[in-house]
Design a protein that fits this description.
Elements lengths: L6 H21 L2 E2 L9 H11 L17 H13 L3 E5 L2 H16 L3 E4 L4 H5 L3 H6 L2 E4 L9 H6 L6 E5 L12 H13 L3 E6 L6 H4 L3 H5 L4 E5 L10 E5 L1 H13 L8 H13 L4 H22 L5 E3 L7 E6 L3 H15 L1 E2 L5 E5 L2 E7 L9 H19 L2
Parallel strand pairs: 1-11, 3-4, 3-5, 5-6, 6-7
Antiparallel strand pairs: 2-8, 7-8, 9-10, 10-13, 12-13
Helix pairs in contact: 1-14, 3-12, 4-11, 13-15, 14-15
Length: about 400
């Protein structure tokens, strides 16, 4: 492939490739994950129409500003996490700002210690500081969760320690249960509160070998998402002590988060809790089968360096790294789906360095039909598609 076009033409080529990949994904007969967000509006509404009567009484009045079904969802989440109360938020970004703003008022310290790769640092445009008068400090930049020694030795005071479980941008990684408990204890030794960024906390039970209430009990507050693992339409919840949650409701109103009639999102979240939550351990277990088969398939293809990270995934999502430019791999993924009706890599490829790219792989219900042999064969075929793209 040549890359000599001007910026405008290059953007156009990238857009065409994105559209081609999206079409290949829709037409593929086999993928490792069917993400509801990529479905049509008709499909999303049809699923809700089918499943909603099984999770809530549809003859109740619609909610107004957080009553009715939204309150029922909050109660369900608090019960699942074993915490006193929970409050619905339209976004996790808002939920976490409110949580940490409330804690700052209680501790008297607006400094939040977190990982350099945590979601607020990478994806939220400095919102903690710009919107909520919080100050962030980075405990570590290493591609793993902070250690207890790093928390104890950090050179300045902080009022709250925020831990993202799993740490998505490091490869959906988790500490061991022992490491996590030691980190929490280290923060408490410094009189800091602990907040879990648990957007994907739902799928951590398999790795930790603990229940959701046992995991949530380690923290002073927990945020969970309804769409990242549960495939809901959106939304999030902040859970913790009743007094904190009541204060958070006031700030939610001030931030504009007490939205009118959230029943479609709440219904989709209840459907996700009913359908997806019980299956997440199965997805995590099969992700480990898929990851091992990918390594074997790339090795069988010969002559290509590849990295699956983590080698044994901690959740049902992980990274795959290959030594090619991202557009080459994206085209190979589309080509494979078009030729074989099986799309091994449906996610975007991102540049990780000169001539090095990575993608995120998720294994959900659609991926359970793939055997290890299927994955190995698809990995070998993918390497052939890469060679075909490069030969043009």
């Amino acid at each position: 492939m040549t890359h000599t076009a001007g910026h405008g033409e290059e953007k156009s080529a990238q857009q065409r490739l994105r559209e081609r990949r999206a079409a290949a994904y829709r037409k593929a007969e086999r993928v490792l994950s069917r993400d509801g967000a990529r479905s049509t509006l008709r499909d999303r509404l049809a699923l809700l129409h089918e499943a909603a009567p099984h999770v809530h009484d549809l003859d109740e009045p619609a909610d107004l500003y957080g009553d009715g079904i939204v309150a029922a969802l909050e109660e369900r989440v608090a019960g699942l996490l074993g915490l006193e109360a929970a409050a619905f938020f339209p976004t996790g970004t808002m939920a976490q700002q409110v949580a940490l703003r409330c804690w700052a008022g209680r501790t008297g310290n607006p400094t939040v210690a977190l990982h350099a790769l945590s979601h607020p640092e990478v994806w939220e445009r400095g919102a903690f500081t710009a919107v909520s008068a919080l100050r962030t400090v980075r405990v570590t930049r290493e591609p793993r969760l902070p250690t207890a020694d790093e928390v104890r030795a950090f050179e300045e005071p902080f009022g709250a320690l925020m831990l993202e479980l799993p740490l998505r941008d490091a490869g959906y990684v988790l500490p061991s249960w022992e490491e996590l408990t030691e980190v929490v204890e280290a923060a408490r030794e410094r009189d800091a509160v602990v907040h879990f960024d648990g957007a994907r906390l739902w799928e951590t039970t398999h790795h930790f070998g603990r229940s959701l209430p046992e995991i949530a009990d380690l923290a002073d507050s927990v945020y969970v998402s309804f769409y990242k693992s549960l495939d809901g339409f959106g939304g999030a919840a902040l859970a913790g002590p009743k007094t904190l949650v009541e204060e958070a409701r006031s700030w939610r109103h001030r931030y504009g988060g007490t939205a009118f009639q959230q029943f479609p999102t709440a219904l989709s979240a209840l459907v996700g809790l009913e359908r997806e939550l019980p299956r997440l351990p199965e997805y995590v277990a099969h992700a480990r089968v898929v990851a091992a088969a990918l390594r074997e398939g790339f090795a069988e293809a010969g002559g290509v360096w590849a990295r699956v990270h983590p080698e044994a995934p901690h959740t049902h999502e992980f990274q795959v790294w290959l030594p090619y430019e991202a557009d080459v791999l994206a085209e190979a993924a589309a080509l494979q789906a078009e030729r074989t009706k099986a799309m091994l890599f449906a996610g975007a490829w991102s540049r990780g360095g000169p001539g090095l790219s990575f993608t995120e792989v998720a294994v959900r219900a659609a991926g359970l039909m793939w055997t290890a042999d299927d994955v190995r064969a698809a990995a070998v075929d993918f390497v052939d598609r890469v060679a075909e793209v490069l030969s043009r």
